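Researcher: Checking consistency across runs. Here is Ribonuclease H again:
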Amino acid sequence: MSQTITLYVDGACRGNPGLGGWGAYIIMPEGEHKLSGGAKLTTNNRMELTAAIEGVQFCPVDAKLIIWTDSNYVKQGITEWIHGWKKKNWKDVKNPDLWQKLDEVCQQRNIEWNWIKGHAGHEGNEMADQLANKGADDFLKDPNAGPAHEFKKKKIEDDWILDDPFGFDLHEKEEDTDHIEHQVVNSIQHPHIKITPQEKNIHGPRQLILDTETTGFYFQDGDRIIEVGAVEMINRKLTGSSIHIYINPEKPVGDSVEVHGITDEFLADKPKYQEISQTLFEYLKGAEIIAHNASFDMNFLNMEFERAGFQKLSDVCQVTDTLAMAKNKHPGQKNSLDALVRRYEIPARDRTYHGALLDAEILADVYLAMTGGQVAFDMDTLSQDSQNSDQIQHKAHINVALPVIYALDSELEAHEAWLEEIAQKNGEPSIFAKLG
């Protein structure tokens, strides 16, 4: 009887196009295999496809493969769209070389393709994502190195979840290191709190681009938060730090599952808000919170923190609403997050279901584009270069006499009559008359 093998495949790209990586986490009866690799100038879709190709190629031909990917592009492409592409001889198909290669390696194989929600805390998908980022990092260090492969045999090991369910021993071990981030130590207090440390040491005011998912629209009627995601930005640069938490709302999610795809069963073992409130409050406080329709998120967060015995988050954070910014910048137009993604040509991500961390990452791109675009120059480097330069730059001064156009007497009289009409309607002088 042939063996059954489970694969989790994923791609990552820093810029689209940009430095990319792919990862395949393969679970066989005899153990786990971890494959990864990278490319200098590529796209996320190409890395997703490469991960699938490398993963399938690695497995025996006679094995049944159960493949999980968070890319609908890959899943639907190989199971649905590819038949039409073949009929038109791959005309107008993007990445035809990789699609043909994937089709080739899948021939005569028993493969079950499945989609999984990315960045949703699933262990296999998270591992594939880590491998993809490792592939990009390894390629950056040594572009000539081939794909990396790590094999781990199955063996009976101590399970810290059973032996140390609250992570106390792990907590003490982590605290002994000199370079651990304080916030990451706090997150170990509960395994369902995921905080990533800063990858870049940047100084300046913190901005946290944030999103929440909830059981409904009305915090006044008992709806609760079920997911919080936020990414950190300093000086218009993402630092790599983020927080992501799923929360048991202590009530059914109801029809909201159609929006976010998060089920009651999934949330059953997640922490209640009281359990994560201290860590979340410490991470958020003092930062500028940037959210789309911020009043919605802040009302829920304020309510949840007050229920947990904390002060309102809005009392310790500045709040910026990107929806209000968008309405002011694009009056009369659609200003949903999806509409802004299309308007600013932000690289598309799969949003079959809304996810707090995914939406926060998308909103970060939108915010940068809406407030002037991503800064293409390294301002620190430019400042240093200008200080080291021997050339003296002189600003050009141009004196231009600007014309002054005065109102006609008839226009002044019409304006006074208009002010008087406003005063009669409202029973008091208008603000314009007061200023005058």
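Researcher: Does this match what you'd expect to see?
Model: One thing to look at in this run: The domain at 166-370 is CATH 3.30.420.10 (Nucleotidyltransferase; domain 5).
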